[in-house]
Amino acid sequence: MHQCHVDLNGPAVPCVPPPPLPIIMYEYNDPLLTGICGPPTYPFQVDGIWIELCNPNPVPINVIAVPQVYDLGVIGPSFCPQPGGLLCSGSETTIPIPPLTHCMQFYLPLGNTCCVTGPYFAAVNLLRADEPFNLCTDDFCDTCKSYYSDLLNPPVDICKAGLMPGNWRLGSDGRTFGQNECPRDHFKTWRIETTPFIERSVFVQDQFMEDVVTLFSRDFFSNPVK
């Protein structure tokens, strides 16, 4: 099985303190832009979220976090993708950061099957920590990519707002089409023994669905199912 590491980030810069917790960090992900992830890429199964954190303290720190996946929200006139609705969420996870750690990567599994058919936002909901800690960012800040929310207000583009020196060091791991457990879209087609111009009800059934349809005069009909 080939695991796809969705990483569109550059070099890390010195760690920066996070906004007051709890917060949600969002990062635009598109496995299609990562050379090792296909094609064919979609449907793509997101298995987990990874994030890089720092601990400048001489004692270990425990951070409580939840891995999440969001779809793309309404894209405005600027054609800037932004976080939409919550698609998948894992369980609360304790992230143990060793003392005096600089930009260590931590992996948070989602647990349940999470499938997407296009770009999405990998996210981490940072709930609380027993000591102050820092976040890692890139050495550049591209707009329309990294967002932050305080859970009370809509997500804010951290680069447009000048909140951070670079994009989040945050991404996802998953499996591409042919190696995952995502459902496949397909069509079911039935051939009907026609009775021209006589309207009647026909019961159709397969392993996915069943329905009663009104038949006029047609040789074939099909229904897209998942």
User: What CATH architecture of the largest domain would you give?
Assistant: Sandwich
- Determine Rg (CA atoms, Å): 23 Å
Query: What structural class do helix, strand and pairing data support?
Result: mainly beta
CA-based shape: elongated
Describe the structure.
- The protein is an all-beta fold.
- It has two domains: 4-175, Jelly Rolls, CATH 2.60.120; 186-225, no CATH class.
- The protein has no helices and 17 strands.
- The strands form four sheets. Strands 2, 4, 5, 6, 9, 11 and 12 form a seven-stranded antiparallel β-sheet that branches. Strands 1, 3, 7, 8, 10 and 13 form a six-stranded antiparallel β-sheet that branches. Strands 14-17 form a two-stranded antiparallel sheet.
- Strand 15 and strand 16 (210-215) form a beta hairpin.
- It is elongated, with a radius of gyration of 23 Å.
- It starts with a strand and ends with a strand.
Layout of SSEs?
Layout: E1 4-6, E2 23-29, E3 44-55, E4 61-72, E5 83-89, E6 93-97, E7 101-109, E8 115-116, E9 120-129, E10 134-135, E11 146-149, E12 156-157, E13 170-175, E14 186-191, E15 200-205, E16 210-215, E17 220-225
In short:
By secondary structure, this protein is mainly β.
Features:
226 residues; mainly beta; Jelly Rolls; 7-stranded antiparallel beta sheet; 6-stranded antiparallel beta sheet; elongated
